[in-house]
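Shipment paperwork, digital attachment
Item: protein structure file
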Amino acid sequence: QVQLVESGGGLVQPGGSLRLSCTASGSIFSIDVMGWYRQAPGKQRELVAAITSSGVTNYVDSVKGRFTISRDNAKNTVYLQMNSLKPDDTAVYYCNAAVGHLRSWGQGTQVVVSS
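Attachment content:
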């Protein structure tokens, strides 16, 4: 399993931007898929964005065109750049790593989008 440490959450106004970071304990080269999930109060956890080891990305429809997932292998870090934030983006965001059948989760970082 991989240890994941998240950072970058905070309070932003609607229309603002935020970048989340997820740093792994080791090289992310061998990680099949890394992704960002989020869970808002009263809602189920949902996959927001994911990136494979080959660089293929996937996004939930509600964030397409606004969010970008990327990775920096040299820093063992995956990022989620969030632009044009909306109040509905308010949630705890969790980093996830998949290696075969193993799954690792970060501790979560709170994102609040509010005026």
